[in-house]
């Protein structure tokens, strides 16, 4: 009984995680500028990966393996936040340089 | 003494990571201990211990807050994306943070990138430039509550004077 409940929860979490990844990718197509796309990718994929990691936890053969799944989520989060920040900074610098260039041309 | 404490804390964390990475394999624990000591020495040389130390209770409160807010953030962006009219009102906003430079500010910037509607663009001194998905959201309020949680992680008292000045 309990096993089937766990299995159903796992399937539900897994499907939810995949759906979130799908929606995050949809953001790449629906949003028109780079920064909005990053919003979609970082936040929605964070949640998608979180759901998938949660779904995998009951399958972990040992406590350490369970922690490993959580560690993967944390490291992926740190990487996504840092890369999002770097891309955003590059876009912003590019915008400012573009404005300065335009005002010089006028 | 301060240095020794930071060293022990880092070595403990690295050993935990080692144990997790080897999935608790007992044959790896010996070599792991040697590597952990070397890595901790290297870490303390490259990143000398700062005066900001982690507080376990604050860190737990932060983790709970973070998980809750990331669910809100993901659901919020997904809702906007799935609605046909695509309701966004993007723009830049600069907020001032009362957190001290270094670790706390860095954690705030990175956390805000994963919180609903905000993406940190640039950190210059106490000014943090954000890109907001929807400027109609109460961004300033969200930043303050995140700031309080980050302050809790480092056991900082709230810098009320600076907050009042901003």
Automatic annotation (TrEMBL), chain A:
TM regions (residue ranges): 6-29, 41-60, 66-88
Pfam family, one: PhaG_MnhG_YufB
Top-level division of the source organism's lineage: Bacteria
GO molecular function: sodium:proton antiporter activity
Keyword Transcription part of the UniProt annotation: no
Entry keyword set: Membrane, Transmembrane, Transmembrane helix
Protein name, UniProt field: Monovalent cation/H(+) antiporter subunit G
Organism in which the protein naturally occurs: Marinobacter panjinensis
Automatic annotation (TrEMBL), chain B:
Keywords for this protein: Cell membrane, Membrane, Transmembrane, Transmembrane helix
Pfam family, one: MNHE
Cellular component, GO, one term: plasma membrane
InterPro entries hit by this protein: Cation_antiport_E (IPR002758)
Subcellular location(s) per record: Cell membrane
Membrane topology recorded in Swiss-Prot or TrEMBL: Multi-pass membrane protein
GO terms, molecular function: monoatomic cation transmembrane transporter activity
Superkingdom in the source lineage: Bacteria
Predominant subcellular localization, coarse grouping: membrane
Family: Belongs to the CPA3 antiporters (TC 2.A.63) subunit E family.
Designated name of the protein: Cation:proton antiporter
Organism name: Marinobacter panjinensis
Taxonomic placement: Bacteria, Pseudomonadati, Pseudomonadota, Gammaproteobacteria, Pseudomonadales
